[in-house]
Amino acid sequence: MTKTFRSPSRHGYAVEISPFFPTRLACATSQYYGIAGCGTLLVLDQSEVEISLFRSFDWNDGLFDVAWSESNEHVLVTGAGDGSLQVWDTANPQGPLQVLKEHKQEVYSVDWSQTRVENLVLSGSWDRTVKVWDLEHPQSLCTLQGHEGVIYSAVWSPHVPGSFASASGDGTLRLWDVKMGASRLVIPAHKAEILSCDWSKYDQNVIVTGAVDCSLRVWDLRNVRQPISELIGHTYAIRRVKFSPFNPTVLASCSYDFTVRFWDWARGDRPLLGTQEHHTEFVCGLDFNLHIPDQVVDCAWDETVKIYTPPCLAAAQQGAP
């Protein structure tokens, strides 16, 4: 069964399920496809039959990404078109707890560190910089430069403290070490803009990129001369890619071709597990539920958020062909 939430005049850019509550999720949306107007953060709850609105927070510019705190179940961060980050508290509906503004252009990516050693937020911007924030301080801890194009995605390693990856319009994937203050590895991953990257939840050396060239590439960071897998099937740019938290070789991707696709990159010449075609516009947001195996949420420019369990994932878990 697919559950659908409609958000009139709000186009979905990113969605993430709470690391604390299996039924709570957040969706970052924008008016007018993010080109103009304001943005709204939707905090949603799912029951067995529907998705309902728990809280909504408005911002005066489009919201492009959202991440839940890994240390406080009520707190989340969003990135906006005006170059700012907003920290929200679902228990305090009055407005943002904090607004952090240093970026000079759109903040297109935010991520909260997952390792227990730290409690840091990452922001990637169209100003070609990534900033690291400790929310106990009003200014960023550091600003990392190196990309020659806009940064679409910046994601903490779930395994190694102080390490993150970024994907850029310059066609490179970069690995960074916060203590070094520099990128330690630059991979010319695609001959096109890279819109998304994600780390394997099982292997600290495996990462995936999704690009405007319609391809996904899986990389082993110990040997980056060529990808260990290339996944072909989308017909337009890949907007977001996520590894499964339940299967080490399964991942999902969503695209401007209106589809979500599920892959097992280890399956040689037949990696595509299934395709979900239930949107009528660009699909921009995607996440796996950490608590409910095989449950997926996505959001699109057709003003809907959808939660579902693709049959192909259950088959993959059972090792079916």
Q: SSE string, helix = H, strand = E?
A: EEEEEEEEEEEEEEEEEEEEEEEEEEEEH
| Poorly predicted spans | none
Major sheet attributes: 4 strands, antiparallel
What portion of residues is helical? under 10%
Order of adjacent strands in the largest pleated sheet: 1-28-27-26
Gyration radius (Cα, Å) is: 18 Å
Strand content: over 45%
Task: Determine the mean pLDDT.
Answer: 95
* Shape category: globular
- Taking the alpha carbons of the first and last residues, their distance comes to 23 Å
Work out the number of β strands: 28
Classify the secondary structure makeup into a structural class.
mainly beta
Descriptive tags:
single chain, 4-stranded antiparallel β-sheet, mainly beta
